[in-house]
Amino acid sequence: MLACTEMITICLQSAKHDHHRKQQQLQQKNQNQGISIFQDIFRRADKNDDGKLSLEEFQSYFADGILTPEQMQELFYSIDRQQTDNLDTDKLSEYFSPHLGEYLNVLSALEKLNVAILKAMDKTKEV
């Protein structure tokens, strides 16, 4: 039979483990939400809707005057490690996700806001 202090310790550890697991699930959910809007951005860059970005689509969409065309090409090929001459949204997300930091929370919030707006618009249409 367990002593009272042992039972309390087990309960506290179990609660701590459950809390940690729930926090991880919440972080994963937020990350997935942030990443899906991130992927939507990449889909917009895919002008011919073939599910991947060519170098031309990549340069056209992401050119902002900061990187030169040569630097953009270098970035493209550093992401395209298998040298397929195209990037799919998964490759782009995989490459850029680790660099999002706190912006992942921003993207997640934007996605939630977008969903709320769409729901409100649907409700307005019904009325």
UniProtKB/TrEMBL annotation:
One of its GO terms (biological process) is regulation of amyloid precursor protein biosynthetic process. Residues 33-68 form the EF-hand domain. InterPro entries: EF-hand-dom_pair (IPR011992), EF_Hand_1_Ca_BS (IPR018247), EF_hand_dom (IPR002048), NECAB1/2/3 (IPR039862). The keyword Nucleotide-binding does not apply. GO terms for molecular function: calcium ion binding. PROSITE patterns: EF_HAND_1, EF_HAND_2. Keywords: Calcium, Metal-binding. One of its GO terms (cellular component) is Golgi cis cisterna. Transmembrane segments: none annotated. PANTHER family: EF-HAND DOMAIN-CONTAINING PROTEIN, N-TERMINAL EF-HAND CALCIUM-BINDING PROTEIN 3. This is EF-hand domain-containing protein.
